[in-house]
Amino acid sequence: MPELLKSRVESCFQQAEAFFKRSFARPQVSFKLRGQKAGVAHLHENLLRFNPQLYRENSEDFLRQTVPHEVAHLVAHQLFGDRIAPHGEEWQLIMRGVYELPPNRCHTYEVKRRRVTRYIYKCPCADSDFPFSAQRHKLVHQGRRYLCRRCRHTLVFTGETRVE
């Protein structure tokens, strides 16, 4: 894991401690996040997970905005408890007051979408097809049935796939 990211997490906690004049439990930091999210704060596990691909491609903004964003979730949870909204006023207060950053809910990093295979299902009553994910297709093979919303017949695999 990049030392720069770890030290940024630590500096964010130090900023929060100076601002609130109290200490905060340090989280475990993981670099095992994939997909579209840049970071995730697991409040009850006191865990931060970051996306290594998005960090590599956007390291400057990632350190400036994403790391404090996720740390602010843990700080807000430690200060205010479970009953706050994830991006509510308490979190926004920390983003603005402690880190002097805009409380942006989402990143704007370009995410390369991976290609996925869709399994094509049909119903006798419909001209349109129903593309299933690999996970849903597997559930059908395990005995799960999916019904057409219009006529309630079981959707049937056509044998066709397409890559998106």
TrEMBL record:
<keyword id="KW-0963">Cytoplasm</keyword>
<dbReference type="InterPro" id="IPR006640">
    <property type="entry name" value="SprT-like_domain"/>
</dbReference>
<feature type="domain" description="SprT-like">
    <location>
        <begin position="7"/>
        <end position="158"/>
    </location>
</feature>
<protein>
    <recommendedName>
        <fullName>Protein SprT</fullName>
    </recommendedName>
</protein>
<keyword id="KW-0645">Protease</keyword>
<dbReference type="GO" id="GO:0008270">
    <property type="term" value="F:zinc ion binding"/>
</dbReference>
<dbReference type="InterPro" id="IPR023483">
    <property type="entry name" value="Uncharacterised_SprT"/>
</dbReference>
<dbReference type="Pfam" id="PF10263">
    <property type="entry name" value="SprT-like"/>
</dbReference>
<keyword id="KW-0862">Zinc</keyword>
<feature type="binding site">
    <location>
        <position position="73"/>
    </location>
    <ligand>
        <name>Zn(2+)</name>
    </ligand>
</feature>
<keyword id="KW-0479">Metal-binding</keyword>
<dbReference type="GO" id="GO:0008237">
    <property type="term" value="F:metallopeptidase activity"/>
</dbReference>
<dbReference type="GO" id="GO:0005737">
    <property type="term" value="C:cytoplasm"/>
</dbReference>
<comment type="similarity">
    <text>Belongs to the SprT family.</text>
</comment>
<dbReference type="GO" id="GO:0006508">
    <property type="term" value="P:proteolysis"/>
</dbReference>
<dbReference type="GO" id="GO:0006950">
    <property type="term" value="P:response to stress"/>
</dbReference>
<feature type="active site">
    <location>
        <position position="70"/>
    </location>
</feature>
<feature type="binding site">
    <location>
        <position position="69"/>
    </location>
    <ligand>
        <name>Zn(2+)</name>
    </ligand>
</feature>
<keyword id="KW-0482">Metalloprotease</keyword>
<keyword id="KW-0378">Hydrolase</keyword>
